[in-house]
């Protein structure tokens, strides 16, 4: 028996090596599968990939924010059979990606996935499994692999999903005969921005923590807590050590609050990032932020049950030692929630609007927030004389809360604007959005100068110089917004935040960025390019894509680039998140090579599928230069600076002119 097993192993390795010869840069992974019968109703499915040298495939559990994880879809699981445990993986490699700024988990040379199943229907003898994965070298290619598995070795009888003739024709029309396509993969996609910088998110969290320190829920606690640690123990060094431990536990608590979001990621890697394009999640966040804002205005308090704080306080007294200090820190987090909760909500909102791994961004922000809260307790314990320099608690802390309330309202309307853009409601045009912000900051300015008051404001007093200074800043920002409202300035400080300039209540030259002429249908744009014999700038974009707006407002508007776009290229802008439904005559089912069928019912689904099947890409912004006869003129680029983008555009023009003169 041992010899037979060795022979089988040898033959298996022999055939695997033979299949390796089929590997190319167009097909860098060759897959196989096998079935191991464990009992009459239980089987072990094994999926193996031989990976070409230099390429790698991502794990199911790689951090979000980098390349997409591998994802198995077991068809009719729960109906014909059930999955026993998770899909297990062979040994992986973890490396930090400087481009995406996350840890990535992947396979090199070989990837093995193992899944146990238990039959629910004993008559079932074949199953279908779909695997979506990304395989990367300098560039990442999305791949659908379809496994048709016979459990008893009798051979798989395929159940064909029949498409009607119209779906077949419309599906074929999405596939474009691109020339020189290998150029797309030559140097990878240039993206100087990459994903959101964790240090920036950390800094935002730290600033949020510093602001939270100035609120009436936290500020008065500083001298009380520091005095407790410095006077409770006769040994000064021990008191300092306890205060530092207290600060450490504050950071730990806010770090722990971010962990559930990593759990959400493991369940669905896109569950948090869908906030950017999901209409109803954006509306929900708008309502939550308005609710937070009015709590800061003093109309009600957001508090956790007082029994929680009492129990934590009691536990800290009974337990003592390090564990008691932990409960003290937890008590602070609970008691201060009415002030910190809305700030943390703002932090969550900011990270969902940012690029990259939302859960990792949130952890970075939470740690920054906790560190800012913790530092004063440790520093003032080490240098108690500094306590004398602290300002006294007073009405100024209420002012801080009100200012935060106005900022929460401003952020709330960003989410409502996202819903409006993606849903094509046509309500919150750019002027409406900026006008709402003008009203909010006018009100904030009037409040800071004491023109009106909120319910929880104390007796009217003489305005402090600090409050007047903040009022002047608010007034200056209001003037800046007004200038932007009337197009006197471009609001570059808010680039990517308001709706695009062409989304306007005023009739514009076109509904394209910066008033440029553009086509929103690929075939129409190509036909025009062939007519005028100009190269094409193919722009894969999105209504809720912040980096797309930044590119348009900061790069496309540059005096060296705008004329090139206007005069030398035919612009085709395809919005992959457009939720507007296609006419019934244009809806169809698209069948991938793997056999998977995807319904195409919206404009965004059409152009998103078009981008994936022709350019092996799924991110935005994504720019491609094409000749009128669909020859790729340069590698694709994403978010880049003005100089890089200009060189890229001019290089495409040169190649187009050379090909014309041949």
From TrEMBL:
Membrane protein topology class: Multi-pass membrane protein
Gene Ontology annotations for the cellular component aspect, listed alphabetically: membrane
Ion transport recorded as keyword: no
Transmembrane segments: 198-219, 240-259, 279-300, 321-345, 365-387, 399-417, 432-449, 469-488
Secretion signal span: 1-22
Keywords assigned by UniProt, alphabetized: Cytochrome c-type biogenesis, Membrane, Signal, Transmembrane, Transmembrane helix
Compartmental location: Membrane
Ranges of residues in domain Thiol:disulfide interchange protein DsbD N-terminal: 39-145
InterPro entries cross-referenced by the UniProt entry: Cyt_c_assmbl_TM_dom, DsbDN, Thioredoxin-like_sf
Pfam families hit by this protein: DsbD_N, DsbD_TM, Thioredoxin_7
Primary location group: membrane
Swiss-Prot/TrEMBL GO biological process terms: cell redox homeostasis; cytochrome complex assembly
Domain spans labelled Cytochrome C biogenesis protein transmembrane: 199-417
UniProt xrefs under PANTHER family: THIOL:DISULFIDE INTERCHANGE PROTEIN DSBD
Protein name as annotated: DUF255 domain-containing protein
Organism in which the protein naturally occurs: Flagellimonas oceani
């Amino acid at each position: 028996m041992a010899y037979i097993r060795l022979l089988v192993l040898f033959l298996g390795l022999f055939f695997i090596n033979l299949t390796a010869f089929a590997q190319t840069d167009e097909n860098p992974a060759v897959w196989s599968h096998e079935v191991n019968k464990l009992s009459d109703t239980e089987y072990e499915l094994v999926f193996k990939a031989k990976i070409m040298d230099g390429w790698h495939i991502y794990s199911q559990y790689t951090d979000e924010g980098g390349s997409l994880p591998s994802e198995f879809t077991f068809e009719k699981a729960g109906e014909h059979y059930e999955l026993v445990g998770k899909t297990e993986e062979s040994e992986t490699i973890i490396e930090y990606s400087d481009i995406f700024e996350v840890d990535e988990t992947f396979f090199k040379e070989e990837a093995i996935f193992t899944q146990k199943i238990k039959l629910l229907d004993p008559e079932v003898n074949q199953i279908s499994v779909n695997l979506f994965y990304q395989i990367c070298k300098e560039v990442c290619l999305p791949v659908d692999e379809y496994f048709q598995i016979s459990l008893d070795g009798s051979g798989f009888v395929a159940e064909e999903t029949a498409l009607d003739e119209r779906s077949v024709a419309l599906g074929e029309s999405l596939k474009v005969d691109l020339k020189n396509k290998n150029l797309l993969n030559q140097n990878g996609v240039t993206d100087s921005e990459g994903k959101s910088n964790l240090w920036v998110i950390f800094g935002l969290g730290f600033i949020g923590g510093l602001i939270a320190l100035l609120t009436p829920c936290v500020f008065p606690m500083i001298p009380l807590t520091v005095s407790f640690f410095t006077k409770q123990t006769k040994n000064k060094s021990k008191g300092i050590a306890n205060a530092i431990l207290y600060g450490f536990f504050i950071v730990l608590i806010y770090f722990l609050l971010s962990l559930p979001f990593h759990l959400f990621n493991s369940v669905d890697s896109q569950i948090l990032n869908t906030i950017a394009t999901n209409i109803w999640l954006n509306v929900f966040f708008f309502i939550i932020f308005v609710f937070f804002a009015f709590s800061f205005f003093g109309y009600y308090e957001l508090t956790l049950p007082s029994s929680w704080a009492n129990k934590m306080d009691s536990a800290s007294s009974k337990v003592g030692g390090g564990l008691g200090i932990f409960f003290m820190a937890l008590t602070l987090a609970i008691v201060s929630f009415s002030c910190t909760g809305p700030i943390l909500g703002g932090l969550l909102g900011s990270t969902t609007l940012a690029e990259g791994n939302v859960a990792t961004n949130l952890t970075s922000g939470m740690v920054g927030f906790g560190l800012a809260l913790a530092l004063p307790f440790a520093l003032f314990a080490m240098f108690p004389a500094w306590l004398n320099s602290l300002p006294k608690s007073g009405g100024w802390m209420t002012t801080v809360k009100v200012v935060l309330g106005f900022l929460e309202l401003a952020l709330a309307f960003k989410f409502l604007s996202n819903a409006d853009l993606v849903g094509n409601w046509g309500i919150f045009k750019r002027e409406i959005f900026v006008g709402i912000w003008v009203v909010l900051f006018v009100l904030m300015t009037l409040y800071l100068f004491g023109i009106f008051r909120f319910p929880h404001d104390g007796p009217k007093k003489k305005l402090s110089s600090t409050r007047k200074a903040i009022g002047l800043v608010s007034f200056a920002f209001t003037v800046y917004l007004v200038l932007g409202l009337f197009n006197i300035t471009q609001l570059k400080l808010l680039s990517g935040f308001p709706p695009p300039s062409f989304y306007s209540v005023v009739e514009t030259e076109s509904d394209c960025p910066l008033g440029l002429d553009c086509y929103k249908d690929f075939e129409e744009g190509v036909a025009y390019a062939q007519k005028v014999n100009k190269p094409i700038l193919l722009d894969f974009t999105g209504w809720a894509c912040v980096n797309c707006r930044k590119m348009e407002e900061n790069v496309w508007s540059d005096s060296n680039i705008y004329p090139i776009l206007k005069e030398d290229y035919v612009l085709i802008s395809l919005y992959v998140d457009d939720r507007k439904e296609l006419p019934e005559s244009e809806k169809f089912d698209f069948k991938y090579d793997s056999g998977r069928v995807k319904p195409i019912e919206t404009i965004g689904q059409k152009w998103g599928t078009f981008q994936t099947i022709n350019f092996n890409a799924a991110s935005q912004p994504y720019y491609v230069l094409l000749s009128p006869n669909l020859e790729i003129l340069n590698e694709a680029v994403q978010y880049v600076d003005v100089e890089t983008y200009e060189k890229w555009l001019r290089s495409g023009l040169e190649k187009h002119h050379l090909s014309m003169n041949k």
